[in-house]
Fold these 2 entries.
Entry 1:
Amino acid sequence: MARWVRAQQVRARPRTRPRAVRHAAPGRRILESPGGRSARSWAWLHDLGRAVITHGRMSVKITITFWAPKDPGAFERHYVETHAPLVNALPGLRAYEYGRALTNFDGSPPDAFWVVSLTFDDVDAMHASFASPAGQKTTADMANFITGPMKSVVSEVV
């Protein structure tokens, strides 16, 4: 069970430069796992006395944006009824969200039509998931509903 600790209570651990860092002023509360470490993250003090949380295994998110299809109703129907169950069956999938783009942040009409995000433990888990039989079936189904442009980006989740 994780516990809240004061930043100055966390002991320094020698380490090479961390992959992902969050700084906290000394005295600020940060989340520390039992024994100061878990498979996913640990907290330690930076040489300047600021608390640092670093992730040994960085979760990744793939965000896929679809622009206007030829038939929006058919796209949405196929995605929700057929493709979403295939995506849900992907091994190693930790989180999955999808939906119609409503507006841009400034309230203007969106450039995209549909946005999807899938989260995995790490890049290797993501690639293994899409290389699996369920992943190949999911990828093969994309030709059945994509009629417009799409773009995907993989990002780290901190």
Entry 2:
Amino acid sequence: MTRSATIERLPSADDQSTPGEAMAQTHRSRFAQDEYSVETAESVLDLIGETPLLRLNHRLARGIKAPLYAKLEYLNPGGSVKDRIGLRMIEAAEREGKLKKGGTIIEPTSGNTGVGLAMVAALKGYKTIFVMPDKMSPEKVALLKAYGAEVVVAPTNVARESPESYYSVADRLTREISGAFQPNQYFNENNPLSHYETTGPEIWRQTNGRIDVFIAGVGTGGTITGVARYLKERNPEITIVGVDTEGSLYTGKEVKPYKVEGVGEDFIPGTVDLDIIDAWETISDREAFLMCRRMAREEGILVGGSCGLAVAGALRYARKVDEDKVVVVLLPDSGRSYLSKIYNDDWMRDQGFIDRFGDRKVVADLLPTASTLICAEGSETARAVIDRMHQHGISQIPVVASTISEGCAPSLDAIIGVIEERSLLEKVFRRPETLDAQVTTVMDAPLPFVDAAEDMEDLFPLFTDGGNGAIIVREGEPVGIITRSDLLEFVAHQRSSRQQEAAKAAPKANSKGGAQ
């Protein structure tokens, strides 16, 4: 079997074949029987693309009505979405005569593009030199060297135009080394084109054309631009959401240092079409990294920081989406390149990402030893519910559809809404007769559910995104409500306790004032 010099356009949802037949056709194009009648790929390059969708339907997406799917790009043979562009850029350079036999490929990279290029170069016999910023994980450096690449490390916190920046160093090496070629993923149109011709059609076919929202982190912008162009050609109503990191130029006025790798920029690359992006979500380093750790524990998915950023943004945006909308978020790379950072407690603690409470705290720590969820029945009047809230000193009360026995917890499905003190006051002020209306006519949407075993850290996005409360669930039953004031009080108490413990542990000053 010989490999085509170009990436073939994949079957789409508009083809006459069924989704199963289209998948089988794509499968046959990637594999063939050899002389021993074994179905096999001829090279690792034939395994690039056709990554699956996975529905995020466990604790991670609890409280989100819209179906949320993850495109698992870390299942590419090189471990990231950048395998797609590495192959495309090299094959295009060969066709155009820019890369010749015995040549050297030089590229500034955060690591993943380097791996994609190095994998292709290893099969085609090219030398590779990659220039990386010094914030990249040691695993990425070791991985590139494993493919036979030379790695040059440059400082991160310098201006792009500085001769020390990893962009400038790559440019200089390209000029100085004979036969060198720089793909330049930041300005190479084959970057978004590879996603227009492969990733976009895959998503369209895999969702049977039902995708409504596509979400991805934005670095070079090639992925989101290429996918968006294809999807919007099929359906202009599809919403494209970019996820950026705090400190990046895409959503910030001032560029600041950040730790997430592979996303955000301090300049606008030529490969991104900002006009095609309909909405943005901005995520902090801390939120991105903690989301990575949650995904490993709750979904069994080990991913990199840019994936945590994308999923955190997707969860935030998906809360605004109707339940009949199909949402797809792209996960660019594997977490195996970040074991010494994101998944290392010492590194996370040194960076201040997991030292908020000292020892690990879970949501259940907010509940009193004996807690009972107080509910209102849908048939009750607002006046009666106000009296009950006053009696128990609470500001929010879930509304259930049917009568429940005293002391018994309702099922999760029975909770149809919530009465919130502030919202109800506004309604009563405008229409006093609301006091005698059934609570089902004045209630708000149900509060999100959080598992009692989840990390306390996971609660913060719920409240920083404008939420007023959450229902705590233990073994499938609702057992209590947590409010913003509850969380604030808990944090203040924990901080006070830690300061007191630190003061007790500190050595007493010498009575004469001199140090020993």
